[in-house]
Amino acid sequence: MESLSFIFFFDAAACMMLAAASALRARHAASLPIGACFLGLLCGLLGPLLRAAFVGQAPLILNSTLYPAAALAGAILGALLGRFVWTEGRFFFLLDAAGLQLMACSGILVAQWWPLSSLGALLLAIFSALAPSLLRDLALGDTSAITDEPAYVTAPLLACLLTSVCLSLQCAPLLALGIGCFSGFLARLIGIRQ
């Protein structure tokens, strides 16, 4: 298997986006800046921590400076955006949708390091991608987007499936990631429009 170390940067970018989306949403829910940053940090780190904990590798995430730094930067960015942007809708949607798809697809690629079946990798990727938004919605007292918006679950599922299919067809990992993320983002956008 070729080196997939580049995928950790995409995974950290997903952490950053989900942290920024969570902090932005928290600031618009009238949270204090420090509370918004903490929620963003927690939501940004939850996906990779959950994925690594399921396979017994949680210290791997905590020993890395990449993940905590990306999540902290995203949380601060989201809290600042929440303070200076009057309407959160578009920024939140872009950060949340892109972060969700990227977390799901990078989860499929990261799962290649562990001895998991295809179904196990798919479930691990979906759980780790959806957990941060579930935590965010519960912490803010909102109805969970997972139960309220059908495309919220089906879009990352489609993204994971297409990423897996591309990998099984021997596509380059970066191409598989791009196809999966783009299709998932497009499916979420179409789901929102309906």
Can I get a quick summary?
With 194 residues, this protein is mainly alpha-helical. It is built from nine helices and no strands.
Topology of helices and strands:
Blueprint (H helix, E strand, L loop, with lengths): L6 H22 L4 H22 L3 H6 L2 H19 L4 H22 L7 H23 L4 H4 L1 H19 L4 H21 L1
Helix pairs in contact: 1-2, 1-4, 1-5, 1-6, 2-4, 2-6, 5-6, 5-8, 5-9, 6-8, 8-9
Helix segment count? 9
Low-confidence stretches: none
One letter per element, helices H and strands E, the order comes to HHHHHHHHH
Count of extended strands: 0
Terminal CA distance reads: 41 Å
Provide a descriptive summary of the structure in words:
The chain is mainly α. The chain has one domain (7-193). Helices cover 81% and strands 0% of the residues. The protein is built from 9 helices and no strands. The chain has helices spanning 7-28, 33-54, 58-63, 66-84, 89-110, 118-140, 145-148, 150-168, 173-193. The chain is globular and about 45 Å long. The mean pLDDT is 87.
